[in-house]
Design a protein that fits this description.
Elements: H1 2-16, E1 30-33, H2 36-46, E2 51-54, E3 78-83, H3 91-99, E4 104-107, E5 115-120, E6 125-129, H4 136-153, H5 158-184, E7 192-197, H6 201-207, E8 210-215, H7 225-238, E9 242-246, H8 252-261, E10 264-269, H9 284-299
Parallel strand pairs: 1-2, 1-3, 3-4, 7-8, 7-9, 9-10
Antiparallel strand pairs: 5-6
Helix pairs in contact: 2-4, 4-5, 5-9
Length: 300
């Protein structure tokens, strides 16, 4: 009888305990990424073991983002914050401090060899180009960093993160081969295009395409009359075939360059942000394929 009483009491305690056995299981780690490309990579490696949120959303400019006090709420309960580094999302440091976040912060680009860029075309100030994700080989470094960081905050998922990182790495290798094959079929002298800001230097290095940018790496500020005139003369002299819009920039600059030089507008490129789910670039792989197709179509 005593044994029966104890069993009944244990069942009663379990039934009315404030936390059930199921609820005692740790929640999925919350990962917060500063912008959509990093968020997509975190989802690819984290899978259904994690929840991912992004601070700067689809088709939004992380270069010029100014955090508001309300944005600090997104860091609540986060176990990992992922930033690009290389000066791209420097505002994230202030946001993290304002939120009082004490968890792990990953600089996804750690280990990437940065390229230098001419940020000020009138004064020649050199700056690090932060758009390292434009080369799939660099994204393999991002992925390895994400795998390791996720394994630290969720050791039980280590094998899952490693397997997903390995599989995604193979997709990145195939992507680089695919894009390289498509662009190498175009004569090298035609692989020259103009973009509105200097965001495709890593892409150019990876696939031997020359990108001439009207603005520096941040894309902020107006293009001076001096720079505009020089660019028009260069396009005419070198017979550069195409000028590209970017999904986050005012199209009027590209339209004027095309009108003044006879170069065609080659469509829209995605440099710093993915599109919403229904768009042409909802994932990193989609973005890179969309950009490569637009470039190849314009240069043929």
């Amino acid at each position: 009888m005593i044994a029966d009483f104890r069993a009944a009491l244990a069942a009663l305690i379990l039934a009315f305990a404030p936390t059930s056995v199921a609820a005692q299981q740790p929640d999925k780690p919350k990962v917060v990424a500063t912008f959509t490309i990093l968020a997509d990579l975190a989802r690819q490696i984290g899978g259904d073991r994690v929840t991912v949120e992004t601070i700067v959303g689809a088709n939004a400019d992380a270069h010029s983002f100014a955090p508001k006090p309300a944005d600090a709420k997104i860091l609540a309960q986060a176990r990992l914050v992922v930033v690009n580094g290389l000066g791209f999302d420097a505002w994230s440091k202030r946001l993290i401090e304002a939120a009082g976040y004490k968890g792990e912060t990953l600089i996804a680009s750690a280990g990437v060899t940065p390229r230098r860029a001419e940020d000020d075309h009138d004064h020649g100030h050199a700056e690090v180009d932060p758009h390292a994700w434009q080369d799939p080989a660099n994204v393999k470094i991002y992925v390895a960093n994400l795998r390791d960081a996720l394994s630290r905050v969720d050791p039980a998922g280590r094998e899952s993160y490693a397997a997903r990182a390995d599989a995604y790495g193979k997709q990145l290798d195939a992507l680089k081969q695919e894009i390289g094959g498509a662009l190498s079929a175009i004569p090298k002298e035609r692989r020259r295009i103009v973009t509105t800001h200097e965001a495709f230097g890593y892409f150019g290095q990876a696939f031997d395409v020359a990108f001439i940018a009207a603005q520096g790496v941040s894309g902020e500020g107006d293009v001076s009359a001096k720079r505009l005139g020089a660019l028009i003369r260069q396009i005419r002299a070198e017979k550069i075939p195409a000028v590209f819009l970017e999904n986050l920039n005012d199209p009027r600059l590209a339209e004027r360059l095309a009108k003044e030089t006879g170069a065609k507008i080659g469509g829209a490129l995605h440099a710093d942000a993915l599109t919403p789910a229904g768009g042409v670039a909802p994932t990193y792989l989609d973005m890179m394929r969309s950009n490569a197709k637009a470039i190849a179509d314009a240069l043929r």
